Amino acid sequence: MTSREHVGTAALAVLLAVALVVGVNLLVPAGRAPASPPAGASAPDDGARPPGMPRKPNLVVVMADDMRFDDLRFAPQIRKLVAKQGLTFRNAFSNYPLCCPARASFLTGRLARNHEVWSHSKPWGYGAFDDSRTLATAMRGAGYETGFVGKYLNGYGVMDSKVSGRPSYRYVPRGWDEWHAAIENPGREGIHGGTYYYFDTPYNRNGRIDNSYEGRYQSDVIGDLSISTMRSVAGRKPFFLYLNYVAPHFGGPDEPDDPRPMKDTKGRTYLAATPARPDWVKGRYDDVISHPPGRPRRGGPAERDNSDKPPRMRTLTEPTSREWAAVRELTRQRAESIHVMDRQVGRLVKALKKRGEWQDTVLAFTSDNGYFLGEHRMRQGKVWPHDPSLRVPLVMTGPGLRSGGTRYDPVSTVDLSATLLDLAEADLPWGLDGTSRVDTLTADQGWTQAVPTEAVRTSPLRKKAGFSGPRTEIGVRTSRWAYFRNRGGQDELYDLQRDPFQQRSVIRDPAYAEQQRLLRGVWDELRDCRGASCRVALPGQLQADAAENRTRGVEYARRHDKVYGYRR
């Protein structure tokens, strides 16, 4: 394949990524007291740490792209080496289930309303991101060596840097001692492939373009770079590594077994976009994945009645048998790409052990957001605040954590940032929007704060009380309740105890008037919150203590497996 063909395929993948935001998804047509002091504002109390946790442990974060919470079933090494020898967080969420805003939130500890990276495309995307102060600069200020590998923010490579004002494809953000970032193709002579081209990915390696990986599978390259970067930064100082895989996000090249375009019952054409995989892994999960994860395993519709959903979701028809087959094939290919990534994470753990760093290393594995695969008639996509898009996998291991335990406290993207800063005794020059969950590492504390959510382009941009900026959805998530306000109409309220899969909104049911009143009050407090005001305690009626929340979490997992799970 020629360089020009590589560029064309990569460009198509970027356009598809943007399309996720423009519509519903690729397959859809167009005052209370603070619950805790500001995380990271001062050194944490060592007594809050799990026994055996060093004062400044090594910190490694591995982030997948578009990986669902239930996709861990396709990652045996991560389950064995991290989950079974660490902690599994059953209530982990992305505050903004879209790649670019979610990654900006992790790097800054801020919600999108405060860092203003709203989407992938201009005027947002990487070009809107001020990365002059991030976790990297905070960790370096706390005495850490730092390293980055893999995907950065969407638009890195093709958009100008907000900090330098210059093209970003050779730009290295502040704070990183080692920088090995995939770049989107800027169209410069001699550069081929791109971030979303799995067999030809160019990298900015400490300011120098390295385009020598044509023909090598991207996840294998990221695995190699992760190990070499770890060896470079490991030494007398503790280190912070942020490692980013594109898998299981879709990307080129096209393959013979990819689903073909299909039409729904209204004649609209859809495309199921898949990740490329190496030949050796193809077919590995065909016998396991008997149905799409968003369709009940005994058959039947994804959602019998979607009239309670916002206008754009109401346009969705129930998938045809051909569409369901395409989503099943998409799920199989995603699982295969996850399996390859999983092997590389296993290699990293082995390398950490061989070097003698494992005993002092906290390793977290997560994703930037979840992903719809049939739920609510959405064949493929994210952005919306419903659980398939909102929930992410999160497992963590490290000294004092190797218990194989499960936690049910809520942990959002910005909470994870606050927790890592707390463990490192590091600071950012602003109040964090998230809450440190260091106490949760020892034991669940209960669900006492709401998880705020937001999105853009889920509905037309109309005037509506309480909305500012480009946001079209703002929501709050508690242990029992999911409450979303949509700028384009039709707000939503779900009683997750009775309706864990969010099939019927009770927003118009007078029996829920009091809960709606309380949730609207929380919504009003959080809609434009910043720093400590994002961490206010819920009203007592909306809180759940550790035992109640655990019971609800166990029941959700049981029901989800019964309805959607695969036979073992």
Describe this structure in words.
- 28% of the residues lie in helices and 14% in strands.
- The protein has 568 residues and is of the alpha/beta class.
- The chain has a domain at 3-43 and 57-252 and 326-442: Alkaline Phosphatase, subunit A (3-Layer(aba) Sandwich), CATH 3.40.720.
- A ten-stranded mixed sheet has the order 7-6-5-4-8-1-11-12-2-13, sandwiched between helices. A four-stranded antiparallel sheet has the order 15-16-17-18, with helices on one face.
- The protein is globular and about 60 Å long.
What is the rounded distance between the termini?
Answer: 41 Å
> How large, in whole angstroms, is the Cα Rg?
22 Å
Share of residues in strands = 5-15%
Report the major sheet: 10 strands, mixed
Percent in helix: 25-40%
**CATH hierarchy, class of the domain at 3-43 and 57-252 and 326-442:** Alpha Beta
| CATH topology-level name of the domain at 3-43 and 57-252 and 326-442 | Alkaline Phosphatase, subunit A
Which descriptor suits the 3D outline?
A: globular
